[in-house]
Specification:
Aspartate Aminotransferase, domain 2, Aspartate Aminotransferase, domain 1, eight-stranded mixed β-sheet, 13 strands, 14% strand
Length: 369
């Protein structure tokens, strides 16, 4: 917690609005719109909800294909499968672990409706190239920026570059509300419909504004709003977003400096950040040389009370992935990275303990065979 979460929850209760779109929700919307430069931001109860709204706004219908990486969380694909869409998995780059922009065009067919990019670890995909591909082929570009709040690509905030952008405020993210998310709408044509979809498919917002005398069912939709208590908690975090970013960057940079010597002797590979990107220190990972080394390292680290974990099981390797999707390229890099990656502890408050953590991790890494 940053200090005012419980105070703001109490204030939200005193305001008498516990359902969605109360005063704290509106404060969060204003901050997001100002910070990112997007034309409209809408809080949702999760990034999954924002992705589901994106699928509806993109008019995904049964058989439509959506190009995306396999190396991502299940929600990236599931939101579109729920509409009958078919994920088409494309391999990732070995340096950034993001979708390989050079493989996208070859995966486009007459059925392709959208491209979903995932900004892994808060480091941007190559957005100029991908946006050009999307516009040339008449495709909707959606940013899964679940890990990307306050990260930039060529000075632009992630989530604000594609036609739609999705954020997460899950407790594992930098700025949190327990569960939570947001949809950024960067094309005005989606704006009015997004309000309807978010509010159970009704025109309730226009009713509250006095534009209609009653609200009715108008479109697809669901209850995608977060409650006001969630928004109150989130706003306390948002007020401290710069402090959170600074603290996480200190931890990330500490790891990065101190692991350089191990990378030079080829024990590990460190994260790569392109010059065009400004990241948010969402995570620090290292790549070991083999799966066995990675698995042994995780076990030994946990014996030292250091919680290191691997990340996604590639979606194309899952039973649902086999049923609902197809591969649009070789996925050899995805499979290789997934077998060797280790995520290291990174959370506010770790700065006071990081020397101890680093000493133990380096000792374990230097003993790897």
């Amino acid at each position: 917690m940053t200090g005012k979460e419980l105070t703001y929850i109490k204030k939200a209760h005193e305001n008498g609005v516990l359902a969605g779109d109360g005063p704290f929700t509106k404060k969060c919307h204003t901050w997001l719109e100002t910070k990112t430069g997007t034309s409209k931001a809408l809080l949702t109860h999760s990034c999954t909800a924002a992705l589901e709204m994106s699928a509806i706004l993109a008019n995904i219908e049964p058989g439509d294909e959506i190009i995306m990486p396999s190396y991502t969380f299940v929600s990236t694909a599931n939101a579109f499968v729920l509409r009958g869409g078919v994920p088409v998995f494309v391999d990732i780059r070995e340096d950034t672990l993001n979708i390989d922009e050079k493989l996208i065009e070859a995966a486009i067919t007459k059925k392709t409706k959208a491209i979903i990019v995932v900004h892994y670890a808060g480091i941007s995909c190559e957005m100029d190239t991908i946006l050009k591909i999307a516009n040339t082929n008449g495709l909707i570009l959606i940013e899964d920026a679940a890990q990307g709040l306050m990260s930039e690509y060529k000075g632009r905030q992630l989530g604000s570059i594609g036609h739609l952008g999705c954020y997460s405020f899950h407790e594992t993210k930098n700025v949190i509300s327990g569960e939570g998310g947001a949809l950024l709408i960067n094309k005005s044509k989606f704006s009015d419909r997004a309000d309807i979809i978010r509010d159970k498919g009704t025109n309730r917002k226009n009713y509250l504004k006095g534009k209609v005398d009653k609200y009715t069912w108008c479109d697809f939709g669901s209850s995608y709003l977060p409650g006001e208590l969630i928004s109150a908690f989130l706003y306390a975090q948002i007020e401290k977003a710069d402090h959170i970013l600074k603290s996480r960057m200190n931890i990330w940079n500490f790891y990065h400096r101190n692991f350089e010597s191990l990378e030079k002797i080829n024990l590990i590979t460190r994260p790569f950040v392109p010059d065009t990107c400004k990241h948010n220190a969402h995570m620090y990972y290292i790549l070991l040389n083999t799966r066995k080394q990675r698995d042994d390292f995780i076990v030994k680290a946990k014996k030292e009370n250091i919680d290191c974990v691997f990340h996604y099981v590639p979606l194309h390797d899952s039973s649902a992935g086999v049923r609902f999707s197809r591969n649009g390229s070789s996925l050899s890099i995805t499979e290789d990275i997934a077998a060797r990656i280790v995520r290291l502890p990174l959370w506010i408050g770790l700065e006071n303990k990081q020397n101890i953590v680093l000493e133990k991790l380096c000792y374990l890494l230097e003993k790897i065979k």
